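Recall the central idea of this unit: under ordinary conditions, the amino acid sequence of a chain determines the structure it adopts. In this exercise we apply that idea directly, starting from the sequence alone.
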Amino acid sequence: MNINNEEVNEDIFSIKVIGVTKMKRILMALISIYFIFSISIEQGYSQTQVQVTKDKVLQYAKPKKPLKIKLHRDKKGEYSWDITGENVDDIIKADKRLRQLLKEE
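Accordingly, the structure predicted from this sequence is:
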């Protein structure tokens, strides 16, 4: 068996070069697989549908406007007031409450 030193060195060098290129290919394949899976997982999370249902009673409910009370005091020291608002029941309750408070004084 006649083996030339140059041939042996060339064979070892070509094996090393082939090994490095295979490693690069494997590494690139692993990186691309990682990105593909990470993108598909993120799309899975973003595609989950959330259904929001609104209660129709709450949807059409209007906030209550506050009552407006203008308090007047005459020269004798007696009080009178003007109550305005949308709900008659609230106006009557406010009037009763004011009468009770003024009687206590």
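The chain has two domains: 1-51, 61-104.
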